[in-house]
Amino acid sequence: SRMFAFEGGYHGRTLGASSITSSYRYRRRFGHFGDRAQFVPFPYPFRRPKGMTAEEYADKLVAEFARLFETEYHGVWDPKANESEFAAFYIETIQGTGGYVIPPMNFYPALKKVLDQYGILLVVDEVQMGFYRTGKLWSFEHFGINPDVVVFGKALTNGLNPLAGLWAREELINPEIFPVGSTHSTFASNPLGTALGLEVMRMTAEKDYEQQIMQSGAYFLEGLKDLQSRHPEIGDVDGLGLALRAEICQADGFTPNKALLDKMVDIGLSGTLEYQGQKCGLVLDVGGYYKNVITFAPSLEISRAEIDQALVLLEQLLLRAKREL
């Protein structure tokens, strides 16, 4: 009946969802309502231990997770009954609110082997990264894994109507074990929402979003790396498709610098930046374990000119914030 989830993971802030979200501040006001997930370290390449490659760090974390099942005294496995206390592992393939952290490509295949060995379901939360945000329909496609359950929403209707859904292996969800009416909600499957969802699926099938988004993302990432080369306060940049990150640090390029990013946010909202002779602003989305990461999730239709403008304004923000702090 219990669940695994990642440190830095975010799956929502309602009662059940907060139990698998690693931020205690979302659970605190609910009081004690049963088991929360057991949170497992996530492979954060930029903040990995010294002397390790990102891939070695990923292997180390998988080995530490697998150790939980070595004996009954590690608390999660009964070797006599061949049964785990844990039913599923909830993941975001790329952490969203955690700061768009992209794990090494060897991590998930190795983790899935352990889960399969002990009969634990892999549930992928694609609410933030699904529908081509990363250049694939589902972000897990980049990592060569087949999840047991996929949860999706938000982009399914482009925000016009609340609608979410789930996909699962047929043996887990079929008309015999999960007949019509097994679950219901006043606003579930409403006609407007389902019509919008179907239209989104049709529209994304009519265009090669994979190629378009990977090209736009590579162009944006190249621009962020150029900024990084000139500003030591940008400690890390990374991205997959149009899910990109820039980690703001002290001058050492590593120590988190929340104060600098907070100042950048304030200046961006003031509308006092300049681009081609006009006043404008720049809204930054902040995430990360230390709230020092700019997470970029622009429109999938963003143009090269708009990316160029964003990069110019971002550099203005950084320079002004450093002067004003």
UniProtKB/TrEMBL annotation:
GO MF entry, a single one: pyridoxal phosphate binding
Residues that span the membrane, as ranges: none
Keywords: Aminotransferase, Pyridoxal phosphate, Transferase
Cofactor(s) named in the record: pyridoxal 5'-phosphate
PROSITE patterns listed in its UniProt record: AA_TRANSFER_CLASS_3
InterPro entries named among the record's database cross-references: Aminotrans_3 (IPR005814), Aminotrans_3_PPA_site (IPR049704), Class-III_PLP-dep_AT (IPR050103), PyrdxlP-dep_Trfase (IPR015424), PyrdxlP-dep_Trfase_major (IPR015421), PyrdxlP-dep_Trfase_small (IPR015422)
UniProt cross-references to Gene3D superfamilies, sorted A to Z: Aspartate Aminotransferase, domain 1 (3.90.1150.10), Type I PLP-dependent aspartate aminotransferase-like (Major domain) (3.40.640.10)
Similarity field: Belongs to the class-III pyridoxal-phosphate-dependent aminotransferase family.
Name assigned to this protein: Aminotransferase class III-fold pyridoxal phosphate-dependent enzyme
Biological source species: Acinetobacter rudis
